[in-house]
């Protein structure tokens, strides 16, 4: 009898292992995330140390939007058997809940454990950019670009970091390289906006026009090209672009302000007033605007303050 009991005790873990693996295989075929998680939980109950079940359950929780639950499962694995993939995936879940510092630690650890893990390096650069650690972000993007020199997005993001560091020549080079690799609507748009910020309105207009030829559904491109037209004195073209922008977004107060200024430039006081009133109603719906400071969140105040200031008095007089 003792021998039979001993055999049963010995076989019990083996049976559980086999049942757990069977359930895990079933879970991998399941498409419903809630059912998938339930199956992995069942497998873990049978075999509490099955780290694969924890990993797959974490992936499913992440896909379901339960990022905190995913982090708990990934952390269980990291305590037992830390590896690059688990650190990377926990970093993704942390990023999703805007724990950028935690994500940075995980991406760094993943890349430390596997220096060929380029997704971890790229994600590390991105999260450093989000944390406004621009110099370190540039270093990581540069490391990534050395290994993957044909990725246009990496050049665009490094350009944005250079721009934040006010290294405009290097930023321009990267925006241009992205276009050479992939002359897409987005890449022309990105360089166009960058040029607008530097007040290269004519050059920006060229890029924004190329972007719109490739994608006519980018409302922001219409706005920025409208701004370039207005600043270049092409007032009728500005009116066309701003009008298209508000067709896409009926609460685009920047476009309405642009329309008000453009109509005023062509001496159409009626339409200037209509659009100025629309902009003001969106910017300050509860009280009258009495100071230019109330436009602080607008594109015009933040990037074209003197132009706005020189035009706003004329618009106020329309009332």
TrEMBL record:
SUPFAM superfamilies: TPR-like. This is Tetratricopeptide repeat protein. The keyword Repeat applies. InterPro entries: TPR-like_helical_dom_sf, TPR_rpt, Ycf3. It comes from Flaviramulus multivorans. PROSITE patterns: TPR (PS50005). TPR repeats lie at residues 84-117, 118-151, 152-185. Keywords: Repeat, TPR repeat. SMART domains: TPR.
